[in-house]
Amino acid sequence: MTSNARRSRLHQEGPSVVAIGGGHGLAATIAALRLYAAEVTAVVSVADDGGSSGRLRRAIGIPAPGDLRRCLTALADPDNPWAAALEYRFPAGSDGLDDHALGNLVLAALAGSDRDLTGPAVRVAALLDACGTALPATSVPVDLEADIGDECVVGQLAVAQTPGGIRRLRLRPESPPAPPQAVAALTVADQVVLGPGSLYTSVLAAATVPAIRNALEATPAQRIYVCNLEPQPPETAGYSSTDHLDAILSHGVPVDVMVVHGHSGPAEVFRGTRIVRADLSDSAGASHDPAKLAVVLAGLVGV
After folding, report:
1. Residue 258: what are its φ and ψ, rounded to 5°?
2. In terms of DSSP bridges, do strands 143-148 and 268-270 run parallel, antiparallel, or are they unpaired?
3. Class of the CATH domain delimited by 3-300
């Protein structure tokens, strides 16, 4: 399907939106963006070192494919059978395939010798007849390194499972290259949405890639951070919404508006960032409702 045909399944007059983060949270944002955006680009963390992604990283040296796969299937045409197929996970006892998601293996196979997932992501998007683009935040594998108290913790899984306040998150290597397509999308975007999702191990893992952070500083787009519904223990145990925002800003990632689940009230500003409160949860209260989130995000960009 041509790019114009894919665009017709979104909204001809809508904004161009870039979503940054990873995991299930970014998939919820993509579902919201499909309801009002004309162009959707996801810039996805590839720092995972656990599960299927971690095994593939260690075995063949590629960036972690799992969050990228999840965002690609969130962008897929609902009628495309490949979306469900790529989410299939092999059961225990599968002779080395245990717990691997088929989509992770496909991305790994397409990566070839250069081990960059950018090209494979574009090819899988075409296979899925996706309505947008999902790109890795970096072209090479990266590790997370966090200062927690007087201790330095290395690896996404270790950072996510360590209780206590994280003072600073770093990437190793320090300046991993970002796909030029991701930087270009940020340059021309009308709106950038960070999160929701794990604060350090998804959102900041993608947004602090130097080329991505520089593009965020330079873009004329409206920059929005969607805060999690609840703190995520142990990574952000005890965090308030402004603690989440403070961590984002303290890592040099600019935010114009933070969207928080709750009842609307008097205008609020924190460190120069406007805070918007609205009912955002699904009926179970466990996840963001894409339709509710879309109403708020579309309103902020004037749709």
Report:
1. -110, 130
2. unpaired
3. alpha beta
